[in-house]
Amino acid sequence: MRPNLAARPFLNTRPVWLVAAAAAALALVLIVANVVFFVRTGRTLAPLVEHRDRLLVEERALNGKLSGLVANLAKVPWRSLGSRVDATNVILREHNFSWLAMLDDLERVMPYDVRLIQISPDVGPGEVELYLNLVAKTREAMIELLENLVSDPSFSRPTPRTETTPEQSQSGSYQMALSVRYHPPRVQP
């Protein structure tokens, strides 16, 4: 073995210095890039910050307006409003109800010997409940009316409510109160 005559041992530090120099150069490049990016974005960020601030002011104003609208909606009497809407719908249905069409349809099914004394319609959304008071000379005329109501598509479920014979009435005729569903013709808009 050969003796080491050096006063200190030899350490090869060149790779360490090369890596340190490369890291320093890379750090310097990144610092310069960061400064350039900061300067550029700092300039373009100012209008964006102003725009954001304007949007925040608008948002606060809209939130205030929305709070006012919500408070106004809380004051609306929703329950009574629903009943008012229902009452208005009934009035509109009754207004749109065609008495002439109904009377024409009744005339079509009414036998010659039956007379209509009173009629009371109860107008619903799709159909009408009619309450009729009738007078006839014979019971067969009343039965014919019921058969006509059953067979006509404009009417359904004829239901006699009361019937009076000539012996029971002062007029000496057959009297009947009945209810029947009337399906009015659809009006094309």
Topology readout:
Blueprint (H helix, E strand, L loop, with lengths): L13 H61 L3 H19 L2 H11 L4 E10 L4 E9 L2 H13 L3 E10 L9 E9 L7
Antiparallel strand pairs: 1-2, 2-4, 3-4
Tell me what you see in this structure:
Strands 1-2-4-3 form a four-stranded antiparallel beta sheet. Helix content is about 55%, strand content about 20%. It has about 190 residues and is α+β, with helices and mostly antiparallel strands.
Keywords:
alpha+beta, 189 residues
Largest sheet: 4 strands, antiparallel
**Oligomeric state of shown chains:** single chain
Shape summary: rod-shaped
Order of helices and strands: HHHEEHEE
- Looking across the biggest beta sheet, what order are the strands in? 1-2-4-3
Low-confidence stretches: none
Q: Assign the structural class, choosing from mainly alpha, mainly beta, alpha/beta, alpha+beta, or little secondary structure.
A: alpha+beta
Radius of gyration in whole Å, from Cα?
48 Å
**Averaged pLDDT, please?**
82
Q: Termini separation (Å)?
A: 118 Å
Number of DSSP E strands: 4
How many helical stretches? Answer: 4
Portion of residues in helices? 55-70%
Estimate what percentage of residues fall within beta strands. Answer: 15-25%
Quick structural overview:
With 189 residues, the protein is an alpha+beta fold. It has helices at residues 14-74, 78-96, 99-109, 139-151, and strands spanning 114-123, 128-136, 155-164, 174-182.
